Amino acid sequence: MALIVQKYGGTSVGNPERIKNVARRVAKSHAKGDQMVIVLSAMSGETNRLIALAKEISPNPSPRELDVVISTGEQVTIGLLCMALEEMGVKARSYTGGQVRILTDDSFTKARILDIDGENIRRDLDGGAVVVVAGFQGVDEAGNITTLGRGGSDTTGVALAAAIKADECQIYTDVDGVYTTDPRVVPEARKLDTITFEEMLEMASLGSKVLQIRSVEFAGKYKVKLRVLSSFQEEGEGTLITVEEDKNMEQPIISGIAFNRDEAKITVLGVPDKPGIAYQILGPVADANVDVDMIIQNVGHDGTTDFSFTVNRPDYDKAMKILEGVQSHIGARQIQGDRTMAKVSIVGVGMRSHPGVASRMFRTLAEEGINIQMISTSEIKISVAIDEKYLELAVRVLHRAFGLDQAAA
Ligand code: ASP
Ligand code: MG
After folding, report:
1. What is the mean pLDDT of the chain?
2. For the segment 234-267, what is each residue's pLDDT rounded down to a tens digit?
3. pLDDT value for 235
4. Residues less than 5 Å from ion ligand 2, measured at CB
């Protein structure tokens, strides 16, 4: 008998037929004798609908009230799944985040989980019931409803699995695992049988939308056995996210290619080349809560230098305004921007032991005439910023250059 947490995403519970399908799956595992905790998202599109509804009333709703509204989608699906299970003769009980007591801080719309009380859940499991928990939501010390940020149901699933010491946390979604890259861009993309936490973290933070980043961090920290699977296939092992690279296996050099099209670049031209300049430029940007990603400061000449960085495209206008505001204060000659940038990253723990990965990446892009505007690296990833119009091409040629379309050895 195993204790399993299964999380189903929005498309998996997108209509009554699909909810019944999830119920059948859950009932099957339950019949085998496994104890089951199910975490659900809202029906696909529902959270967006609720946000749009709120914005129709108020362009800037109070975060507390926004959470009251957008947490309702999950309350609907948990009730419906329990009904479907009961229809099949399976005992089931739903819980909102507050009813479990998923305690969070009070940062509405992006709350962090502080503690989970597993008591109620355990009692129901021991009584033979399937427990169905609303993802994405919690409750703060004062009893206010909070939400965990978009995609937060993944984090609920992993955090619950850690709290009740589940044997495995299975994330059911509309893809059958983690792919070498987005198959919509590269049809030859392959499903990975395993990927390390480190690689998954990079993939998630670089734009692969399979798992919310925080859920991966959580799983790594608490050593939760995490697996991504399709809710639309009967069979399949999905992708297992492993703590360590398998030393017995020939590691591919690159495990995947992530990309993000919503990037923008800002260049501050002709600033005095002196200590403190990076701080003067980026300080006000950080104060406005704008995340800065890649940064380049050029070699100075004639006492001045140029300074470029990238931001997420939705933050571009805000960041430009801030810099235009401080332009004369920092003594910059000109502020330039480009809002149609994209970032492509190759990710793999195999990079640690294989030199020449960067040069192969750069050569591959050069052969296609794709200009690299910025580069950043970590131990297991190399990212380049390029013009958005070359994004698909770049991902395709890199996928081929690193042999990702070939089955693993
Ligand atoms: N329903 C929430 C969202 O759409 C949470 C989730 O699905 O993970 O972001
Ligand atoms: Mg999701």
Report:
1. 93
2. 888 999 998 776 666 666 789 999 999 999 999 9
3. 82
4. 9, 151
Token digits for 323? 């810099």
Residue 336, beta-bridge partner list: 267
Ligand closest to CA 13:
1
pLDDT at residue 409 in the model: 46
Pairing of the two strands 381-387 and 374-378: antiparallel
Question: Which ligand 1 atom is nearest residue 74's CA?
Answer: 1
Starting from the CA of residue 150, give the closest ligand: 1
Decide: 14 in ligand 1 pocket, CB within 6 A.
no
pLDDT digits 0-9 by tens, 18-43: 999 999 999 999 999 999 999 999 99
Q: 353-390: buried (b, 16+ CB within 10 Å) or exposed (e) per residue?
A: eeeebeebbeebbeeeebeebbebeeebbbbbbbbbeb
Phi and psi angles of residue 338, each rounded to the nearest 5 degrees, phi first: -140, 115
Cα 65 off chain centre by: 25
What are phi and psi for residue 23, nearest 5 degrees? -60, -40
Q: How many residues does the chain have?
A: 409
pLDDT at 343 over 90: yes
Q: How far apart are CA 106 and CA 101, in angstroms?
A: 14
Query: pLDDT, tens digit, for every residue of 119-137?
Result: 999 999 999 999 999 999 9
Q: Is 110 in the pocket of ligand 1 (CB under 6 A)?
A: no
Asked if 163 and 339 touch (Cβ cutoff 8 Å), the reply is no
Look at residue 248 in the predicted model and tell me its pLDDT.
Answer: 60
Task: Give the ligand whose atoms come closest to the C-alpha of residue 148.
Answer: 1
Which conformational region is residue 27 in: left (phi greater than 0), alpha (psi within -120 to 50 degrees), or beta?
alpha
pLDDT given for residue 249 in this prediction: 62
**Closest by Cα among 145, 146, 165, 30 to 86:** 30
The best mutation among 12, 41, 71, 218 to test binding of ligand 1, ranked by most ligand atoms within 8 Å of the C-beta, falls on: 41
Q: In what order do the strands lie in the sheet with 145-147?
A: 113-116, 102-104, 137-139, 145-147
Q: How much of the chain is helix, strand and coil, in % rounded to 5?
A: 40, 30, 35
Kindly list the distances between the CA atom of residue 253 and the CA atoms of 170, 187, 214, 216, in Å, as whole numbers in the listed order: 27, 21, 25, 22
Alpha-helix residue ranges (DSSP H) falling in 140-263: 153-163, 197-205, 213-221
Question: pLDDT tens-digit profile of 167-211?
Answer: 999 999 888 899 999 999 999 999 999 999 999 999 887 767 788
Residues ≥6 apart with Cβ < 8 Å to 320: 266, 335, 337
